Amino acid sequence: MLVLNRKNNEEIYIETPEGRITILISDVDGKSARIGIDAPKSFQIYRKELFERVMKENMDSNLHADISRVKKDFLGGFKDDN
Amino acid sequence: MKYKTKIGEVEIIETDIVLFEKGIPGFEHLKKFAVFSVEDTAPIQWFLSVEDSNTALPVLDPWLVRKDYYFDVPKETINLLEIKNRERLLTCCIVRIPSNDNEEITVNLAAPIIINLDNSKGTQLILDIPEYDLRHSLIKEIERSKKLVQSKNSREESKNAGSEQKK
């Protein structure tokens, strides 16, 4: 991994075939840093933890898909509803 | 064409197959999915991989359980899916249905799957909105939506009653 030292308000450029990504260190306060990112529209930017939670939840839902329970409770709940 | 899936062998029309260029998180290697309805499990539908017979996620129309569900489609997604008309978007949310009756059935409102019906391209959004979580209790959501509809109805009734009095 490339590791660079940057101070407040300093930037990093990443040149990609789709355009430039600019990363700005907008504030550093103790253990946390505020980062601004400018990227071409095609780039999707996520917090890693959130992305990983979605990943785990998707895999978990594939494992926990009990059809018998859908028929039993879930449909019952819906019938009451209508 | 017939496909072997986790919910059995099913007939899927080619035009119903949706391309997920990047897969979905956790299933990045799979690109082709279909939202399949089974009468037996309605309103739960199945988000089926046509490439892997072990991948089938139960999904649901989110507005069935959260009447006021709303999110903005990010610009990069509008580009990615070439969305021209918001009304041609199909949205479904993944449900988690554990076998253990003590565990609640939950719905993921933070990461809806959206499909552009005009070109059969889809993606899973990751919404960074505090009120939407990966696990909302299905029972609580249904209760909440019922109350929401009731209070809306009663407001309308009192409004109608008011206008009748004026006559």
Helix content of chain B: 10-25%
The mean pLDDT of chain B is: 90
Order of helices and strands of chain A: EEEHH
- Topology of chain B as a string of helices (H) and strands (E): EEEEEEHEEEEEH
Distance linking N and C termini of chain B: 62 Å
CATH topology of chain B: BH3618-like
Overall description:
- The complex is a heterodimer of chains A (82) and B (167).
- By secondary structure, chain A is α+β, with helices and mostly antiparallel strands.
- Chain A folds into 2 domains: 1-44, no CATH class; 46-82.
- Chain A has 2 helices and 3 strands, in the order E-E-E-H-H.
- Chain A has helices at residues 48-63, 67-81, and strands spanning 11-16, 19-29, 32-38.
- Chain A has a 3-stranded antiparallel sheet with strand order 1-2-3, with no helix packed on it.
- In chain A, strand 2 (19-29) and strand 3 form a beta hairpin.
- In chain A, 10% of the residues are buried.
- Chain B has a single domain (2-166), classed as BH3618-like (Roll), CATH 2.30.290.
- Helix content of chain B is 21%, strand content 28%.
- Chain B contains 2 helices and 11 strands.
- In chain B, strand 9 (113-116) and strand 10 (121-124) form a beta hairpin.
- Chain B starts with a strand and ends with a helix.
- Chain A binds chain B through residues 41-44, 46-47, 50-51, 53-62, 64-71, 73-75, 77-78, 81, and chain B through 6-7, 24-27, 40-44, 54-58, 64, 74-76, 79-80, 94-99, 101, 105, 108, 110-111, 124, 126, 128, 134-135, 138-139, 142, 146.
Key features?
heterodimer; A: 82 residues; alpha+beta; 3-stranded antiparallel sheet; 2 helices; 3 strands; B: 167 residues; BH3618-like; 9-stranded antiparallel sheet
SSE inventory with pairings:
The complex is a heterodimer of chains A (82) and B (167).
Chain A lengths: L10 E6 L2 E11 L2 E7 L9 H16 L3 H15 L1
Chain B lengths: L1 E4 L2 E4 L6 E2 L12 E6 L7 E5 L6 E5 L14 H6 L8 E8 L9 E2 L5 E4 L4 E4 L11 E2 H29 L1
Antiparallel strand pairs in B: 1-2, 3-4, 4-5, 5-6, 6-7, 7-8, 7-9, 8-11, 9-10
